[in-house]
Structures are given as structure tokens and as C-alpha cells.
Amino acid sequence: xxxxxxxxxxxxxxxxxxxxxxxxxxxxxxxxxxxxxxxxxxxxxxxxxxxxxxxxxxxxxxxxxxxxxxxxxxxxxxxxxxxxxxxxxxxxxxxxxxxxxxxxxxxxxxxxxxxxxxxxxxxxxxxxxxxxxxxxxxxxxxxxxxxxxxxxxxxxxxxxxxxxxxxxxxxxxxxxxxxxxxxxxxxxxxxxxxxxxxxxxxxxxxxxxxxxxxxxxxxxxxxxxxxxxxxxxxxxxxxxxxxxxxxxxxxxxxxxxxxxxxxxxxxxxxxxxxxxxxxxxxxxxxxxxxxxxxxxxxxxxxxx
Length: 304
Hints:
Blueprint: H1 2-22, H2 27-34, E1 78-84, E2 87-93, E3 101-106, H3 108-113, E4 120-128, E5 131-146, E6 153-176, E7 179-200, E8 209-231, E9 234-243, E10 251-264, E11 267-282, E12 287-303
Antiparallel strand pairs: 1-4, 1-12, 2-3, 2-12, 4-5, 5-6, 6-7, 7-8, 8-9, 9-10, 10-11, 11-12
């Protein structure tokens, strides 16, 4: 009798398993129903016709940046194209006994109308954090008439070529939302070349004389700059330097004041005034230049 009951129970369990498989049921759930508590549970394979669930995809986190940011990423470029409507007062020492010094004077209109070939005026700046390098270049070739009050000469003309290059290394001493201040050291290179013709007086039997004078030198500078924002896009920048100190020129100095209007973050309009002055002479030969240039400036500030 007991043997017959065991056979019947075994057949019932087998039939239930076959029915569950045919119906797509879970063998593990059915096994848990008939297996003794605490017995091992075997996970059933997926039903026929169904694909196994996809394996989870592991995405690696982005790698941290390697090292510190590069030098170029923190470097800015600022260009300052400008037009300087300067007048020129220039004294030239000569070896002529009858004209030891020649004075040249020309207004901005005369300079513009007597420029002999293409001039150049421009500046650029490379700021990097609190440090910055500022450079300015000026090339002015012109021919100006000379009015003399010398008894031996009745006027003349002078072909003048001035090359001026200024470089400053600046450090930001003050950096506030409405104002900044920079200070630093720099240099200014001067190249001056003149060919002066003095017309002699025939009644005094004085012949026409021509004097060639040229020289170049470099002066050390102490420079400073201050900028103030007024709001609504307006601002003011003042720059000044002083140098020479008798090392090359006796004195070399410059002042610039610019009123600015910010059109957008890349473009600013500038208008102001500039004065550039130098007094240079050398005992090795009778050569000396006293140059005074001053006048209004109009320009742009371009940020890249």
C-alpha cells in the first residue's frame, strides 16, 4: 500500500513539472512548493522562446584632466591699432659752425600731408594672470620745410624718419571690479635719421649745405598704468613712463590719457591725448636730438 502511494506521488510531481514546463512556468517556484524547507533552490532556465536579460553595461567615469592647464589657455591677446595726430618739434645738433642747431616744427596737418611713405602706429598686449607684456611701435617718415632766421641761410627742408619701439613688463598691483593699476619696467628704442638741406644766400656767397644726422639708442623705463570704469560702458585709462636717466638719453618720458567706450567684449573705441619726449646727445660726435611729439589719438581695442 505504501509503495503504491509513493508511486502515485512521484507520478503527480512529474506530471506537475511537465505541465509547468509546457505552460512556461517557473521550475524554481514549483520546486520550492514541493521541496522540503531549507533545501537547495535551483534557478530555472528562461522559458523557451525568451532571450536572457542583457548583461549590465558598465560605463567608466570620465578621466580627470592630466596635469595643470596649458600656458596658452590662460594667455590673452589685445591689439591697439591707432592714429596719432601728432605735431612735431625737433631740434637737431649739427657740425655746421654757421648753424649748430636746426629746429624743425610741423603740425599734425603738415605731417599728414608730408608723409613720404607708409607710416605705422600700433600697440599690442599679452596679459597672463597678474602679469602682462605691453609693446608699442611707431614709424614716421616725413619731409617738412624748415624756416630759418639765420643770416647765412634762407630756409630749407628736412627728411625725417623716426622709429620708436616701447616694451613694458607689467604686474597688476590693484585688481578691483571698478579699477586696476599696473606697474613695471621697460625700455624704449629710438632710431632717428634726418637729411637736412639749408639753402644758402647767394648775396653773401653762402652755398647750400646738406647735413646728414642719424643715431639710435635704447633707454630704460619705469612705467605705470591706471584704469577706471565709470559704468554704462565708459572708462578711462592713464599711462605714463619715465626713463633715460643719463644712461643713453638725458630724459625720456611719455604720458597717455584715453577715454574709452566698450561696444562689446571684443571691441572698444578709444580717444585721447599723447605726449612723447626725448632729449639725447652724445659727446663722441656733434649729434643730438630733442624730440617733442604731442597730439590727439583715436583708436580701437580688439580682444581675441
